[in-house]
Design a protein that fits this description.
It contains 15 helices and 21 strands. With 469 residues, the chain is of the alpha+beta class. It has a 9-stranded mixed beta sheet with strand order 4-3-5-6-7-8-9-15-14, sandwiched between helices. A 5-stranded antiparallel beta sheet has the order 11-10-12-13-16, with no helix packed on it. A 3-stranded mixed beta sheet has the order 19-20-21. α8 (135-152) crosses α9 (170-181) and α11 runs parallel beside α12. The chain is globular. The chain starts with 10 loop residues before the first helix and ends in an 11-residue tail after the last helix.
């Protein structure tokens, strides 16, 4: 896809080009260069997005087991022979030119320049995933950072104070590259585990910021702390919340808090992606006449990643615009390859064919509602251990037939005060059958839930985990 039209291509053209990029990437790099994906994809032919949708999703525990520490089986690491047999024609010609100019180590250097991991992020919920970047991937991350700034409406006239803690995370490094790519003057004052108020207040005294980026869960508390210190931010025009987009009421409260610091016509915009993704997506800046809580969704990068939404209960792709689990493919990236990775993140839906009403971009947009680790809460087991459970396996047990068998009119399965709770609205108090159902759920998800009977508890939503919270 041409860089200058990445965000304005007709949907049919975009899907066709995505299919071609996907087929080339899988055939020339993923399948031949990654032991894990070679075995998992086997001889399956993928020539289109529809073919991709027919592949099974891959869960975090499978990815984490790919080659042990560092998940080395996911890496694209070709031998010289594999590169000669499977590399694309352009890559082979470029490597041949390098060999003619190089010395005895030229072959190894040619492979290293293309495929050696040089940068790693931590990801994963219940287990640690290592997401590796090659030098070429860092160029792509830089490009994605430029696009993030472009979608947000930021540029060289802006100054950024970034309260996202420095560390091996997608969220910190995408913002770092966004500032570099867009020539934004940036200060990154927060370290891992550090309370943000004091370093951010010091940074704002040094740099008159037009943009303040902050983890969404800390945003309101940080703004209130700055107000108590008498901080004035008359030049601030953008509060960038990093993480799942805040709901409308929270967004309005944040805008009011920023205005209370002296900001004139501030906007609250969000940037988010699951940590296993390769770059953050952002909301565009709404028109000035829109209310403060307005948002038109997260704009993705169709030539850099493929995003799908699956309906966990139905076990298939969600209908357009409907909520479900985000499934991610790292289109064209090297380092760590991900193909239909089940992220565990809930999203309110995906719009693929309707231009953004605010900015006119035609890229797929995720609904401005999401939750990290929506089905993987930490709960206390009966033996006192605190463990992660995976509620995505529960629908296979909590089927309409199984629920009818215990006389359940409604149900929910959620973490409540650190315990996993199966709430049932029963026609009759058939506690023995409900206990059997709870044990079956426990075998599927990892911890036997407590059973609570009653219509009020069973009607609590989200019904399954934090999906829709």
């Amino acid at each position: 896809m041409a860089a200058q039209t990445w965000d304005r291509r007709p949907p049919a053209t975009r899907r066709r080009d995505q299919g071609r990029l996907l087929a080339t990437w899988l055939d020339t790099e993923v399948r031949p260069f990654s032991p894990f994906w070679s075995e998992r994809l086997g001889g399956v032919t993928v020539d289109s997005l529809q073919d991709l949708a027919d592949l099974p999703v891959t869960e975090e525990r499978e990815l984490a087991a790919a080659g042990g520490p560092g998940n080395s089986g996911l890496l694209l690491l070709p031998s010289e022979d594999a590169f000669k047999r499977h590399g694309s024609r352009n890559e082979l010609l470029a490597a041949a030119r390098e060999l003619r100019r190089g010395g005895p180590d030229a072959r190894r250097a040619a492979l290293f320049r293309r495929y050696k991991p040089v940068h790693v992020h931590e990801a994963g919920v219940a287990v640690v995933l290592a997401v590796a970047y090659t030098r070429r991937d860092l160029d792509r991350l830089h490009l994605a950072g430029a696009r993030l700034a472009e979608v947000l409406g930021l540029g060289a006239d802006d100054a950024l104070v970034n309260a996202v803690p420095a560390g091996p995370t997608l969220r910190f490094w995408t913002l770092y590259h966004a500032a570099l790519a867009a020539r934004i003057t940036a200060l990154h004052p927060c370290g891992a585990g550090q309370a943000p108020l004091a370093p951010v207040a010091r940074a704002l005294a040094m740099l008159p910021a037009t943009v303040l980026a902050v983890p969404v869960g800390q945003a309101l508390g940080l703004l209130e702390g700055l107000a108590e210190r008498g901080t004035a931010l008359p030049g601030l025009r953008t509060l960038l919340t990093v993480g799942p987009p805040p709901p409308p009421a929270t967004r309005a409260a944040l805008a009011e808090a920023v205005a209370g610091l002296g900001a004139r016509q501030p906007r609250v915009q969000a940037a988010w992606a699951p940590e296993c993704a390769r770059a953050l997506w952002a909301e565009c800046r709404p028109p000035g006449a829109d209310p403060v809580e307005a948002t038109y969704g997260l704009h993705t990068y169709p030539d850099l990643d493929l995003v799908e939404v699956r309906d966990l209960t139905a076990g298939r792709a969600a209908a357009p615009g409907q909520p479900g689990e985000l499934v991610y493919t790292s289109l064209g990236w090297r380092g760590t390859a991900l193909v239909r990775a089940a992220t565990g993140s809930w999203t309110g839906g995906l719009v693929g064919d309707v231009p953004c009403p605010a900015c006119g971009r035609t890229v797929p947009r995720l609904a401005p509602a999401a939750a990290d680790a929506a089905w993987q809460p930490r709960v206390r087991a009966d033996d006192g251990r605190v463990v992660y459970v995976d509620l995505r396996r529960a629908p296979a047990v909590l089927t309409p037939g199984a629920l009818a068998g215990v006389g359940a009119r409604d149900w929910s399965l959620r973490a409540v005060d650190g315990r996993l709770v199966l709430a049932l609205d029963l026609v009759d108090d058939v506690t023995g059958a409900a206990a059997d159902l709870a044990r079956a759920v426990g075998r599927a998800v990892g911890v036997v839930p407590d059973v609570v009977v009653g219509p009020r508890a069973a009607s609590a939503r989200p019904q399954l985990g934090a999906a829709g919270a």
